[in-house]
Design brief:
The chain is built from nine helices and no strands.
Amino acid sequence: MEMKTTGDLSQALMSEPDLDSYLSDNQDFFASQSIAELLTECYKDCPYSKAALARKAGMSEVYLHQVFAGRRNPSRDRLICLCVGLETTLEQTQQLLKQASYAPLYPKIRRDAIISYGIVHGMSLEEINDKLFAENEKTLS
């Protein structure tokens, strides 16, 4: 099966006269993994224990385990904190945000630009929050 890009899907959606046909024809291309599954996939490459990850992400171990078990859905900020803790790339972070139906980090928004810079440059959550605070922006945790 040939993969379709987001652009391909968007073009097909706009040109398809029948929504049901579009949904049926493109079923295999819709995102199907939960945030818990995607985070678990990212965690496989993580050198830290879940306890250490919880500390790096600025959250309790209980909350972290609930997210990984799929019992809690993290907010946008909490998901970003998890991405910082997991040391994901900016591209991985953006993908996780999209999959969770959250807005991706947008460089025209000052706060998002600071967060994006922190992720790209491997800053810790504490360092990102310090910079956000210094710039009078809402911190992540």
